[in-house]
Amino acid sequence: MQLVLAAVQSPNSALVVVGDFNIHVDVPSDVSAVQLNDILNDHCLQQHVRESTHKCGHILDLEITSADHRLT
Known about the structure:
Elements: H1 2-8, E1 16-20, H2 31-42, E2 45-47, E3 61-66
Antiparallel strand pairs: 1-3, 2-3
């Protein structure tokens, strides 16, 4: 994922990534969630979804943008 982000990020345009990641980003002890969060931080990206997107109560569908970009 880091290689893909490095290839598509541009300092002059906003990056928006959306989709079903199947990573429980709402579980702080989830190893995959920690790794994803580290990758997002390394690339100055922010995940915006804060409410459950799955019937079992987890956040799996994500909206990721450049940290300085706001979704409307």
